[in-house]
């Protein structure tokens, strides 16, 4: 592949402490209408390297629909409560918790299905890409390339009520696996 | 393990409160160290997650290298936006209240491009900033500068067919923070930008030419190379200056990373 023009990319920066009024929008964490058929809660806590919850982080998810279709529909920014756009944004609470109403993605290729996720926070100098795989994910070549401990940081846990829980650790022994492309 | 988080505002002050001279020395030492590692062949990102002069990053940056992965289809596409997702008035931050905001009116325009120079049309750009006195409207901003009842400081735009955006706003003031003693951020506007692919998503900050605070600021300097830092600075653009109204600045944003159109071309070959 040849690059016709190679422009130097703009470098990323921290989202800072005051992102809320600039990036909040109505029902931004409702990828699907709450309690609609097939909807689930995906939630978790974002932790720092001392194990303290991070109360000023943003988590964004972008995922395929249940049948593996990647939505090309507009409306992630202006929810109509029925169009599936696949994108959601959640600010962590004062207890470090993020939450989405969404659907479980179907496979888009040969690998196991996952939510693509990005984390931003005050004190985090640039975005971090990660993936949130569904419980029981197997046969995925990328997951198989990881150690069991690394793999565990990328796979959500099924709670008794059917919801998905997935904590994100920016640093430490159980640091989440982050991705470069 | 902590059960609950500390109140966010209590986290804003670094515990050690070094002098500016000590922080500046740390910045210079970190830049020299990263330049040395790069000269030895190490591949380093443009923005350093491990950048201790930015004190609140110390417990919040990963210590392991990211895993290099082939992006899958979902990562090579991104949410779809269109012109009707944002009202035209949302890109004029001076029109959001009954009165005129105080400060120097500016026009900021530029293009959103991929690294091949192709314009990215119909992409959402979100901006937020302090007012002309350096005060954010955010409730946790404790800087005792005046709020401006006629300025919120948040705006949105969708890039046009040529990948262009334009915001009308007020030049933000420099802003004090508690990273160290007498710490001040250079004037900046936060930008959040989608791209053609989720891999290209970027949140960054735009600065203004000639700011005397550049060398002192840990966040600006978390970008390790001078050439990358300088591309964060908008250029004064007299063609963007509106007669009798606003000073003009130009700032292009180039997203990084692959997208689906790249993969299709690779498959064709």
Mean pLDDT across every amino acid position of chain A: 95
Q: What does the radius of gyration of chain B come to? A: 20 Å
Largest interface: A-B, 79 and 89 residues
CATH names the topology of the domain at 77-257 in chain B as Protocatechuate 3,4-Dioxygenase, subunit A
Number of strands of chain A: 10
SS elements, strand count of chain B: 12
By oligomeric state, this entry counts as: heterodimer
What's the helix count of chain A? Answer: 3
Unreliable sequence segments of chain B: none
- Give the CATH class of the domain at 77-257 in chain B: Mainly Beta
The major pleated sheet of chain A works out as:
5 strands, mixed
Secondary-structure element sequence of chain B?
Answer: HEEEEEEEEEHEEEH
Number of domains of chain A: 1
Major sheet attributes of chain B: 5 strands, mixed
Sum up the structure in keywords.
heterodimer; A: 181 residues; mainly beta; Protocatechuate 3,4-Dioxygenase, subunit A; five-stranded mixed beta sheet; four-stranded antiparallel beta sheet; 3 helices; 10 strands; globular; B: 269 residues; alpha+beta; 13% helix
Please describe what this structure looks like.
The complex is a heterodimer of chains A (181) and B (269). Chain A is built from 3 helices and 10 strands, in the order H-E-E-E-E-E-E-H-H-E-E-E-E. Chain A is mostly beta strands. Chain A has one domain (20-169): Protocatechuate 3,4-Dioxygenase, subunit A (Sandwich). Helices cover 13% and strands 21% of the residues of chain B. Chain B has a domain at 77-257: Aromatic compound dioxygenase (Protocatechuate 3,4-Dioxygenase, subunit A, Sandwich). Chain B has helices at 20-39, 226-230, 260-268; strands at residues 67-68, 105-114, 124-129, 154-158, 164-170, 175-177, 183-185, 188-193, 202-207, 235-236, 247-250, 253-255. Chain B is built from 3 helices and 12 strands, in the order αβββββββββαβββα. In chain B, strands 2, 5, 10, 11 and 12 form a 5-stranded mixed beta sheet that branches. Chains A and B meet through helix 1, strand 5 and strand 10 of A and strand 1, strand 3, strand 9, helix 2 and strand 12 of B. Strand 10 (179-180) of chain A pairs parallel with strand 1 of chain B.
